[in-house]
Amino acid sequence: MLSILIPIYNQDVRKLVYTLANQCTKAGIPFQILCFDDGSLEKYKAKNQELAFKMNINYTELPENLGRSRIRNWLGKGAYFEYLLFLDGDSGVRDKHFIKNYLSGMPYDSVVYGGRSYQKKKPANAKKILHWKYGMRRESLSAKNRNKHPYLNFQSNNFLVPAALFSKVYFQENVEGYGYEDLQYALQLQKVGISIKHIQNPVFHDGLETNVQFMQKTRKAIDNLIFLESKKQIPRTRLQDFNDKLKYFGIQSFVFFLLKKGLPTIEKNLMSRYPSIILFNVWKLYLYLDKTKKK
């Protein structure tokens, strides 16, 4: 029936795994939970190793770091039930009917994305405000809103796919690190005519990063975005559309000059207790213009 696949990188996934196992047991379905550790620190391995001795749970420590795409492919190939549910290791399941919500729509002939949520309360750690604020504004979307642009709004943190479909469309493995591998996968699905259905069944994103970490990962993500655009392996993004408008009106260089001049002020705001998401998007535009200019 259901294989739950969890890539782990420096996370304690025990609460997540036990919650999922309990829900599957109550639902009375055959299930397995595969947990592949992708090179975590020893302190996280020491905590998660207890999972190896639990029924229906397979915990494996990989000898090398595979990365976000390769490890998902390995998990998919190691699963043996007809449906695969991919969940990030920093997910939090709050809904006691989370598994049932996926089961109630079966059978599926498409990919199903459940969504992502963030705690409504602002994090106590001021250094994590930027990630939380961005997640609330841009990622914590209702299924109704996500379905307006089903491929562009797909994320790989919480999705179910029939094993038969996943065996035909794997994640490509030509990008490294964080960023846009989910949209690359979405475009592959679109090209072969596999639809993405969005439902209201989110997990909470419990792994907030500091402003510094989040900005570092965003820089890497922009690199991946530009690479995938050059390969035509990603749906058109908002950044790409906006950049094309600047080119159309002949003001790309002027806008880049203004952004570069204001960069210290923008980055100071993003590192503050009250970061602006508008300025964060402006900062991403600056990175995009800067990197495409160098290309």
At a glance:
The protein contains twelve helices and ten strands.
Strand arrangement in the largest pleated sheet: 3-2-1-4-8-6-9
Describe the global form. globular
How far apart are the termini? 47 Å
Low-confidence blocks of residues: none
Number of helices: 12
On the 0 to 100 scale, the average pLDDT is: 94
Description of the molecule:
- This protein has 295 residues and is an alpha/beta fold.
- The protein folds into 2 domains: 2-210, Spore Coat Polysaccharide Biosynthesis Protein SpsA, Chain A, CATH 3.90.550.10; 236-294, no CATH class.
- It has helices at residues 14-27, 42-48, 68-78, 98-103, 129-139, 143-146, 163-166, 181-191, 211-230, 238-248, 252-270, 277-294; strands at residues 2-8, 31-37, 57-61, 83-87, 91-92, 111-113, 116-117, 158-162, 196-198, 203-205.
- Strands 3-2-1-4-8-6-9 form a 7-stranded mixed beta sheet, sandwiched between helices. It has a 3-stranded mixed beta sheet with strand order 5-10-7, covered by helices on one side.
- α11 packs across α12.
- The N and C termini lie far apart (47 Å).
